[in-house]
Write a structure and sequence with these properties.
alpha/beta, Elongation Factor Tu (Ef-tu), domain 3, 12 strands
Length: 268
């Protein structure tokens, strides 16, 4: 069965990191008052290349649902057809359209909302931004129910910290949101966290267990409990390259976390 295609008009395009050539896009779906999706889902963009061959690329939506709008965060890739097509002002100026289908995907928040660790590198921050916009909308509502929410965002350089001002403002406004950007190749002027994301995820887990008087690793889950009935008081959501995702999953496994507590998406 052919997928239903929607026409999305580009309303805004911003380069949010000149060094990394990362672009933020705002699209509006034509002919619709609303374009509904869950935070963490993705759309697939469709366009013919220079040889007339149809190309499709999946992009995580970088915003919570709002009317007929959705936002994307895309790194320009050398010799990459779709990223260059989107980023190039001559190929896709503001006002131009693309074809999409979706939303798709199951990288969504578990219900009920619990304490949650969001772990991302690079453009893997896109679905995390969607989560946070849904949990803490601009109108001041709080869907987190007071749960602790951590965003551990890893990148190499300070210039590559996407949406930094937005996340810092949210952390200042919401006491239970904790923003932890960490750099693996920081220069001497950087005063923040250093190292890979696993280091800081480990600290969160160990400090939380200490506050709760728990020992690590966590005791194994009763195998008699059906998988559909499993509930945990904390989940980890991971998005990025496979090397990072695998590293965090191995770390959590060492702490005795159940595989159902770990929700992940890889984009390589």
């Amino acid at each position: 069965m052919a997928r239903e295609l929607y026409t999305a008009r580009l309303a805004r395009k911003d380069c949010i990191s000149e060094v990394a050539q990362c672009y933020h896009f705002l699209f509006e779906v034509e002919g619709r008052d609303s374009f509904d999706y869950l935070p963490g889902q993705f759309v697939s963009a469709v366009a013919p290349d220079e040889n007339g061959k149809q190309q499709t690329r999946a992009y995580s939506i970088a915003s919570a649902a709002s009317g007929n709008k959705f936002e994307l965060c895309v790194n320009r890739v050398e010799n990459g057809f779709f990223s260059n097509y989107l980023a190039d002002l001559t190929l896709l100026p503001v006002g131009a359209t693309i074809q999409i289908h979706g939303p798709h995907g199951h990288f969504v928040l578990q219900e009920p909302i619990t304490d949650s660790i969001f772990v991302a590198t690079g453009t893997g921050v896109a679905p995390m931004r969607a989560y946070l916009q849904w949990l803490f909308p601009a109108d001041g509502a709080d869907r987190s129910q007071g749960k602790d929410i951590w965003l551990v965002y890893g990148t190499r350089y300070e210039s590559d910290i996407y949406y930094r001002a937005e996340f810092e403002a949210l952390a200042n406004r919401v006491p239970n949101f904790h923003y932890l950007p960490t750099l693996s190749r920081a220069d001497d002027t950087w005063k923040g966290l250093r190292g890979h994301v696993q280091v800081h995820v480990a600290k969160i887990i160990e400090e939380r267990a200490k506050r709760q008087g728990r020992t690590l690793p966590a005791p194994p889950v009763d195998p008699a409990i059906p998988a559909a009935n499993l509930n945990f008081d904390i989940y980890c959501y991971i998005c990025g390259l496979n090397f990072m995702v695998s590293g965090v999953r191995e770390l959590l496994d060492g702490y005795g976390w159940h595989k159902k507590q770990v929700v992940f998406e890889r984009y390589d």
